[in-house]
Design goal:
Length: 138
């Protein structure tokens, strides 16, 4: 098995807060990400796909095809959007980096099989200092 990774980027607004909590409790828990009037991040997404190397092409999957797939299924839905309000597959989900990574996995898992690979990892970087990795499952 060989693993290849495609990087894509998107910029989006969000906030982390619970309506059933006070503004103070939201701030204590989520810090600046609880700002009631939203804020943004420049997210960096790494999608890692595993598979066998094709004897004719030398590829696991065609990275430009994978890039197009990620753009079509993920990036166009998230880029320059409000993750809390604009994204059907994030509806009613806390827009933490963890949950965004899981939602991206769910958007891509079956699609990656269609192009002959196996989705291995979603790495989502929210800031230079923080990132999440998700390998599927619980
Ligand atoms: Ni934030």
């Amino acid at each position: 098995m060989v693993y290849i990774t495609r990087r894509e980027r998107f910029s989006a607004a969000h906030k982390l807060s619970r309506k059933d909590w006070t503004e103070e409790k939201n701030y204590e828990t989520f810090g600046k990400c609880s700002n009631p009037n939203w804020h943004g991040h420049n997210y960096v997404l790494h999608v890692t796909v595993g598979g066998e190397v094709d004897s004719e092409t030398g590829f696991v999957v065609d990275l430009s095809v994978l890039g197009d797939l990620i753009k079509e299924k993920v990036i166009v839905h998230l880029d320059h959007k409000n993750l809390n309000l604009d994204v059907p597959f994030m509806r009613n989900i806390m827009t933490s980096t963890e949950n965004i990574a899981i939602a991206i996995w769910d958007q891509l898992e079956e699609e990656v099989k269609e192009i002959g690979g196996q989705l291995h990892k979603i790495k989502l970087q929210e800031t230079e200092n923080n990132y999440v990795e998700y390998y599927g499952g619980k």
